[in-house]
Design goal:
heterodimer; A: about 475 residues; about 75% helix; globular; B: about 220 residues; mainly alpha
Chain lengths: ~475, ~220
Amino acid sequence: MIIELILFLPLISCVALIIFKKITFSRILVLVNAFALLFYSLSLYLAFINNSKITSLLGQYFKIDALNILFLLILSIVFMAVSIYSCGYVKSINMHNKKATYYSVGLLLFIFTMLGTVLSSNIALSWVFLEGTTLTSAYLIYFEKTKQSLEATWKYVFICSIGISLGFVGIILLALSTHNSSSMFFIDLYSHYSNFNTLWMNLGFVFFIIGIGTKAGLAPVHSWLPDAHSEAPSPVSALLSGMLLNTALLLVLRYYHILNLADCASYGRLLFLIMGILSIFVTAVYVFTIKNYKRMLAYSSVENMGIISIGLALGKTGVYAALIHLIFHSFAKSSFFMTSGNIYVKFKTKRIDKVSDMITCDPPTGWLWILTFIVISGIPPSPLFISEFLIIKELLADKHYIILVLFILLLTIIMYGIARCVINMTFGKRPNSDHFDYIEQTKLPWTMYAPQFVLLAILAFSGIYLCPFLIEMIKTAAQLI
Amino acid sequence: MENTLSLLFSFTMLYMASSGRLRPYINMLVIQGVLLFLIFNELFDHINIINYCFLAFETIVIKAIVIPLFIWKIIKKSETYIDTQPSIPRFYSLIASTIILFFGFIFAIISKHHLPVDNPLPFGISMSTIIISLLFITLRKKILTAIIGYIMMENGIFLLSLSIENEMPMIVNMGVLLDLFIAVFILGFLVKRINRSFNGDSLDKLIELKDTENDN
């Protein structure tokens, strides 16, 4: 199997899209890409676990390992759901040929850069692709061309570019710590760690986690996230929240693994812990003042990245819990954002107080909204309950009582804040207005419901029964952190 | 020689910290590009010819000509030649930059024994350049000056990568350059749009998106 094929397909498709510029063609091609990506990712996974030969056309630059295969599979599943949803979304907002083509090209380029980041086996090359994700997704965030989307895009590109530049300083300091004894390939870095200077390595990690953490949505460097997520079209928000944040975090995990190998990760752990608690705290502070439901979901992403970060700081079981949280948060949040797209298409507003009685206006969307909220809050049978429970257990075992109390308290505040909005939007009394009758009559295509229901089914099933192969996969991946 | 060139590079940073006019910023960006070219010539004796050509192209063509020209074009179009309202007076900004630079020198001297390089001065200067650029971005209120600050920071990072005397692979160099190039062009494109939509290019005008209010 050749790894690069998975990268070439979106690029070739982009060329084809620009030549033909037809809405039907672009919808089909995005779907074909999603199916091909899912199929190829599964094939790569099977080849990897069976130790079959996986070749690379570009030498050592792209490789599959236990960690990135997990991220690749999440990416392909989320993209599959988003591409199906996009078919209906493009239709429901009446996109014309040219606009639909550019939207599809933007999506595919964004996927290409995320794939590059996940599959790169060189830390500097991963960085290049990660910067690429900023540039390719900028167009998608500016897609609606409003004043607000322009401001969000500016903040996104500028803040993330600065963050990623600081991340590059981290890479340079890592290179300095190697004393020229290692290349920047992960495999070399993992095998020569004993020769590295721990002072420069730790200093580099500070730059790296702050820089790349910007992109991963960790507080206090998360300020671009609520703006970009709320202004991008909903399928794009689903990809940003469901995959981009993970992709950036993967890079941080790669660096963190070197610190763990060199047994000097205590500062790294502390940074993860501080940024994790701050992320949850920031969300708890803002959750009651937010008036925009997409913004509320964006803050929820900051919170969940914080939970993952705390899990990583706890080591061993914490890392295992963090990976469970990362996988299922991706599915749940992309489903949540796609459902928010349904609400926007129907109600034509992002304001929480202008949406009510969804359960009558559009029952499937109402149920999706409520069910996804249950999953994201970690209420059983949500698999996020397992991860949060494991983190709490680990905090207790490590005797971090203050953090434990803070963690539970902040999560409860956030849950209450989001529940209030979600319940009001779903079951709240509708005003006497013709607008609501019109909303009730507007029908959305089935493709705008099916992906979320499938994702929720996967989540509910995983919450009740975590498949052994998945447990094994997570355990193997955790060994590379 | 590389010490003299690095010092000259640090002086351009001080000049930019003290000036409020956009034209001198552009001139300094050109000078920084040329200085970076000269510094890498001094630091790398045995460099692969392809890498040499690439780095020469990156410094002379991109950093010293294309990017400054592009920014100048935007300045002319937006008719903004001065950053009138910095958050603090420029004199204080100069003092702060000088102090940061001073600590950069101290850092270079202290870390001399821990650094696996022959000459630690460019390393110290590059670290202080990055911090001065961040300060520059924070204290200036025009969107254009924020972009110039970003380019200054990229130049500082370039100097840092030269100072560790560790050659990056060609593919990575190309990627870094491509990303910088596209980022500057995208930011330039956004400046034009912001000028049109927000009637000006002050960062203070970008207040449409708030946590507490949103009309859409």
